Amino acid sequence: MNNIGGMFKGIVLMGGLFSHFFLHAQTLTSELESLQESSKVFVRGDVSFYSSNEVTQSQGANQLMEAVLNVDYKTSAGKLYLKLSGHQDLSSSQQKTQMNNTSFGLSLNPIKLSESVLLIQKFYGYLPTNEDSRKLESFQTAAGGSSLFYYSHPLASFYYRFNAKKNSHQFSQNSSAEFNISHSVDNLLGAEITRGKWTLNLDTQYLTAWNYNNRLKATYLLAQTLSYQASSAVTLSLGHYHQSEAFKANGTENNFKLFDVRTSYIYAGISIRN
């Protein structure tokens, strides 16, 4: 896999399944690969398993399995995409299975700013296919856009993404009488090192969100992902991430931790593409 097509085997941070960020490997890699594919249709399937020592309501470790199907259609302007996904909560006795909110959008063709720098712009939306977000948060839809800058160097690659999203809810408060998130902006900064079939990604994200009462909440996420290109169609990934509020309860002391034995997640995944 070439340097540009092989970048971002790490992470993309999305609206979480548990009202926080959720991690999914290799979405950015697929984005560039599908834009460069000669075929009109690009399909990729992912299965990932996540585990944490964080205690859930069932008094067990927080464990989750997620399956994702990405379907991309190439156009002269870029690619149209549809992402269908679902998850199963393995930490509860019922092991509830749900669809995630479905995402769709348009990724424009990369703009070459220089010999080493690319810009990729994306516009996207979400459909309310997750049962909990519809019933508990009255989620209706969301729309947003992002700009991704990628710098390629023989020793390592670096990338920065700015993303903004606006949510729409039927009610300003959820079923627990807490205000829903109205809009958010986030900044993702990362580095990638590739040696042969192995790739290491180091990523950090800082998200600022405002609820319908105009209260601000800042959250960060730190992640490390090691990927192995088993074949042209199969990639295996193993990683860790930790997400938490950016400040402690007093609002002034920072709360940054690289690892927390209770709340850090360890995950493993496999990605298969056509």
Write structural notes for this entry.
With 274 residues, the chain is mainly β. It has a single domain (11-273), classed as Porin (Beta Barrel). Helix content is 6%, strand content 59%. It is built from two helices and 16 strands. Strand 1 and strand 2 (22-25) form a beta hairpin.
Keywords:
274 residues, mainly beta, Porin, 12-stranded antiparallel β-barrel
What is the gist of this entry?
Helices cover 6% and strands 59% of the residues. By secondary structure, the protein is mainly beta.
Residue stretches low in confidence (pLDDT < 50, at least 5 long) are 1-27
What number of structural domains do the residues give? 1
- Say how many strands there are: 16
CATH topology description: Porin
Distance between the termini: 14 Å
Proportion of helical residues: under 10%
Mean pLDDT: 82
Number of helices: 2
Largest sheet, strands/sense/barrel: 12 strands, antiparallel, barrel
Ordered list of secondary-structure elements with their pairings:
Blueprint: E1 11-14, E2 22-25, H1 27-36, E3 41-55, E4 61-74, E5 78-89, E6 97-99, E7 102-108, E8 111-112, E9 117-127, H2 131-137, E10 139-152, E11 157-169, E12 181-195, E13 198-211, E14 216-229, E15 234-245, E16 265-273
Antiparallel strand pairs: 1-2, 3-4, 3-16, 4-5, 5-6, 5-7, 7-9, 8-9, 9-10, 10-11, 11-12, 12-13, 13-14, 14-15, 15-16
